[in-house]
Amino acid sequence: MTIPALLFGLVLSTAYGTAFHFWRAGSLKRLFLYIILAWAGFWAGHFLGALIGWHFASIGPINGGLATVGSILFLLVGDWLSRVQVERK
User: Fold this and answer.
1) Per residue in 35-50, pLDDT tens?
2) Alpha-carbon distance 12 to 15, whole Å?
């Protein structure tokens, strides 16, 4: 994978994280959480797609389709888990 492809992947996944942040209207702390979750999900989806040989919506060497799906899944699950309240007795 080339350096421009890595940078494009980081920019695209950061855009997913910030768009999710604007949709959920979070704080600055949540913005960083969403960006990190988007990065992790994007690259996990990309490498999972490469591992199992699925390629859809490829953007050069990046498996854009599964990377986007991975990013969205990580963002949804991470947001849900971050909002869990622990009851103390």
Assistant:
1) 999 999 999 999 999 8
2) 5
Residue 57 is assigned to a structural domain of this protein = yes
Instruction: Dig out the tokens for 12 from the structure.
Output: 């695209």
66 neighbors 44 (Cβ within 8 angstroms)? no
| Residue 24 lies in domain | 3-82
How many other β-carbons are positioned within 10 Å of the β-carbon of residue 75? 26
pTM: predicted TM-score of the whole model, two decimal places: 0.87
Q: How far apart are the first and last CA of the chain?
A: 52
Residue from 3, 4, 2, 6 nearest 67 by CA? 6
